[in-house]
Write a structure and sequence with these properties.
two-stranded antiparallel ribbon; about 0% strand
């Protein structure tokens, strides 16, 4: 029973911290940050206790109940998936909180930032622990709201305000489909509780078309949160928020929520081959497209943002290949090295007085030694270099593709080549060669409160791959040729991509080549803007016509005109003459007598 109570403490500790900051400590930046950090550390300690006990307790009580129709429990699920996710979310969240103490130390909105950070952690933990669709959807929406607040933290900047709105609206599109999918599942199975839906799946399988529609609508929610094509456009712009927020969103929380949800409901999705085909191709398109775009970006955070898109594509690809284990494995390893890379980028940005253009950097390995070494560890893991954690998790997905879908495997291997290329480009331009600006020449290492989390994450990236995660989730495909060929091909793609980028960008003062449609992200944002403008213009014209000719003329105008006409007629009766009034009175009496006698 102790796990039951600890699970609730883990969930509500960040919420309590957020409430205390908003109500009592907004004026004290130090106390606000202390409360937020203490809460996430307490949640991390509780998550470790729950993970160590390895019990599948599921505390629950009826929350919403319409007997015989609709029952929603307030319940938590503590299986292997949620226990592992709890440790990752709270652990990385704690490191990002500590890092934020240094990064946000002079920010005027520091208390507001930590309050939103705590509320975000509460929402994400709610997604991880929810045992039913309704609870999950509520926390899902709360994650969307808090990410809006965090991305728009510097709301006085137009770019940050626009990015926050873009993230919120784009996610609502996916969430609308998610809500419809939930309603379809409830309408057919009569339950929203995952454990109760599973035994009733025969109802869904009896209608394959309905099942496919429900599965794809549920996937819409994941496509929004995990930024899959065509709902990917919000994630790169989310870089306008503080760098710790970028690390939190990109590592183990918001964008990971979509993949986690797909793994949680995999027992539904895997029943529809059509849905799996759509999912695997959406993931593959996202992975390839984002990797291509990343090769032409110059903002250090945007390069990492597109790498996140690409790696999320790998995870969704694994879901489409019917392996939620491989997807979750890559989610966990990616959480560590992507948090490391973003926090390392934040260290670089602070050292260069918030410069983010990589062509204004260069030679930073000499002045930012700790940042460089830890960033290099994260970069090698992202490229899939053995023996770092990313190598093992990415290989698991490549092996799946090799077994089940050769075209997908070829595209995934091409993505691995592109990843090695753009990551090496980033390393060479930022850390090697000569400084390209005065800020780069005089840069100094970040304080320990920022470099400390980098060192911890680097150690997790180095030692967390083959020993800790592999035994938890992934079994290597049994075929001997897969075991031999896939790692060799992956290493070959890594060597070719990294070698090509090193040779091309070594000691180069500016971009080697310019591919416009990649630099402009395939013009997808421009296409969306054009469509929105045209749609809004059409709707505006229709609304104007309806307002002018239906409401004003036929509605309000017609009523007012009729009233005016009747008034005009009555004015002729009001002549102001006593004889005329006597005549009308007599006429009225005659009319009454007529109707009384002859009717």
């Amino acid at each position: 029973m102790i796990d039951n109570n600890i699970a609730w403490y883990v969930l509500f500790a960040p919420l309590i911290a957020a409430a205390l900051i908003v109500v009592f400590t907004r004026r004290s930046k130090g106390l606000s940050s202390f409360l937020s950090c203490a809460a996430v550390l307490a949640s991390f300690a509780g998550a470790c206790l729950i993970f160590a006990r390895k019990e599948d307790a599921a505390p629950a009580l009826n929350w919403i109940e319409f007997p015989g129709l609709f029952v929603v429990p307030l319940g938590l699920v503590l299986d292997g998936l949620s226990r592992m996710m709890l440790v990752v979310v709270t652990g990385i969240g704690a490191l990002i909180h500590i890092y934020s103490l240094g990064y946000m130390r002079n920010d005027e909105g520091k208390s507001r930032y930590f309050a939103a950070l705590s509320l975000f952690m509460f929402a994400m933990l709610g997604i991880v622990l929810s045992n039913n669709f309704v609870m999950l959807f509520i926390f899902w929406e709360l994650v969307g709201f808090t990410s809006y607040v965090l991305i728009g933290h510097w709301f006085d900047r137009d770019a940050a305000a626009e990015a926050a709105k873009k993230a919120f609206i784009t996610n609502r599109i996916g969430d609308f489909g998610f809500m419809l999918g939930i309603l379809m599942i409830w309408a057919t199975t009569g339950s929203v509780v995952f454990a109760n839906i599973a035994p009733r799946l025969s109802i869904l399988t009896s209608n394959p078309g309905f099942l496919t529609a429900a599965a794809l609508l549920i996937f819409c929610g994941a496509a929004g949160k995990s930024a899959q094509f065509p709902l990917h456009v919000w994630l790169p712009d989310a870089m306008e928020g503080p760098t710790p927020v970028s690390a939190l969103i990109h590592a183990a929380t918001m964008v990971a929520a979509g993949v986690y949800m797909l793994a949680r409901v995999a027992f539904i999705i895997q029943l529809s081959p059509v849905a799996l085909d759509v999912i695997v191709w959406i993931g593959t398109i996202t992975a390839v497209m984002a990797a291509l775009i990343a090769t032409q970006q110059n903002d250090i955070k945007r390069i990492l943002a597109y790498s996140t898109l690409s790696q999320l594509g790998y995870m969704v690809m694994a879901i489409g290949l019917s392996s939620s284990d491989a997807a979750i494995y890559h989610l966990f390893t990616h959480a560590f090295f992507k948090a490391l890379l973003f926090l390392g980028a934040g260290s670089v940005i602070v050292a260069l007085h918030h410069e983010q253009d990589i062509w204004e950097m260069g030679g930073l390995s000499r002045n930012l030694t700790i940042t460089f070494v830890t960033f290099l560890v994260g970069a090698l893991a992202l490229m899939g270099c053995p023996p770092f954690s990313g190598f093992f998790s990415k290989d698991a997905i490549l092996a799946l593709a090799y077994e089940h879908n050769m075209p997908i495997f070829v595209l995934a291997l091409g993505t691995a080549f592109l990843t090695a290329f753009y990551v090496t480009r980033l390393l060479v331009v930022v850390f090697l060669g000569h400084p390209r600006s005065h800020a780069a020449r005089i840069s100094r290492e970040s304080p320990l409160v920022m470099t400390g989390p980098l060192i911890v994450l680097a150690l997790l990236v180095i030692f967390g791959g083959s020993t800790f995660f592999t035994g938890q989730f992934v079994s290597v495909p049994p075929e001997h040729d897969v075991f031999e060929k896939v790692p060799l091909l992956a290493i070959g793609a890594l060597v070719l991509g990294a070698g090509f980028a090193f040779a091309l960008y070594r000691n180069r003062p500016r971009e080697a080549f310019d591919i416009g449609f990649l630099r402009q992200k395939f013009y997808i944002d421009e296409i969306y803007s054009w469509l929105i403008d045209r749609t809004q213009e059409l709707l505006a014209r229709i609304s104007a016509f309806f307002d002018r000719w239906i409401i004003d003329t036929a509605g309000v105008g017609g009523a007012s005109g009729g009233t005016w006409g009747i008034g005009a007629l009555l004015r002729f009766v009001q002549v102001g003459n006593l004889q005329a009034y006597s005549f009308f009175f007599g006429l009225g009496v005659v009319a009454l007598i007529y109707f009384a006698v002859f009717r």
